[in-house]
Amino acid sequence: MPKLGWVKFRAGRSLDGETLRSATLSREGRHWFLSVLVDDGRQTPETHASPGSAVGVDRGVAVAVATSGGELIDSQFVAPGERRRGIALQRKLSRCAKRSTNRDKTRAALAAVRARERRRRLDFAAQVAHRLAVANAVVVLEDLKITQMTKSAKGTIESPGRNVAAKSGLNRAILSKGWHQFALALASAARYTGTTVVKVPAAYTSQRCSACGHVDPKSRESQAVFRCTHCPHHEHADVNAAKNILAAGLAVTACEDQSRPAGRARSPKQEPAGNREELLLQPTTAAPAA
Ligand SMILES: [Zn+2]
């Protein structure tokens, strides 16, 4: 590798017969990871295996992901014991003397707990994204930026939130992070299946009735229940939102010209590299294929 010379690593799988494009070195705690980008020669299919299939996905408040098909996909990323351990470590950290060895140790232990949670989140996002991309030619998501401003941690009248200001920031960070990872995983999975990913503004998707189209904040009976004030329609609030997202996405795809290549996400922004160091193995102008 440039600057480092020869680096020994343990391969997660065989790289025989694949063209290496670049390698990314990252560190997590005491461990170093080498991610190798390879060109596997696979092309994004022109058409999806099941054309005409479409799904809307809502980032749920009550559950992690809700689909317009009525599916509620949820996962716990932290076991109760791990949560307790995380809190205990945090307390311990605050009592540690500054610049002490114990403080470093506690910090490393806390980082390990957080890293495990982060990996589970990533795994969950990748699995759900793969499942949705395989089953659907079109997947519609709410656009993140707008949602960030509209969701709140205020809670409901029955169960008002505590520490609203602090929590809203935290919620936003956690939820938006998971959602961003999910959107990235979906864009990646879509390149293998030919799925089109559409992003729509999230405004009113949680307040609009998916049956009659009536918009009323009062229809949102609770965090989990949507009961229309205009018609007899009622269902899970996140599923109702997912249906609205699907309808908005289909409206977008219907009026757009079809010349765009299939499977290309609408906003192909790359994730910021963060603290990773990108090392290009060979100067190549070819765009990295899926
Ligand atoms: Zn209605």
UniProtKB/TrEMBL annotation:
One of its GO terms (molecular function) is DNA binding. Residues 179-245 form the Cas12f1-like TNB domain. The keyword Lipid biosynthesis does not apply. One of its GO terms (biological process) is DNA recombination. InterPro entries: Cas12f1-like_TNB, Transposase. Residues 43-152 form the Probable transposase IS891/IS1136/IS1341 domain. Pfam families: Cas12f1-like_TNB, OrfB_IS605. Residues 257-290 are annotated as: Disordered. Keywords: DNA recombination, DNA-binding, Transposition. In the C-terminal section; belongs to the transposase 35 family. NCBIfam families: guided_TnpB. This is IS605 family transposase OrfB. It comes from Mycolicibacterium chitae (Mycobacterium chitae).
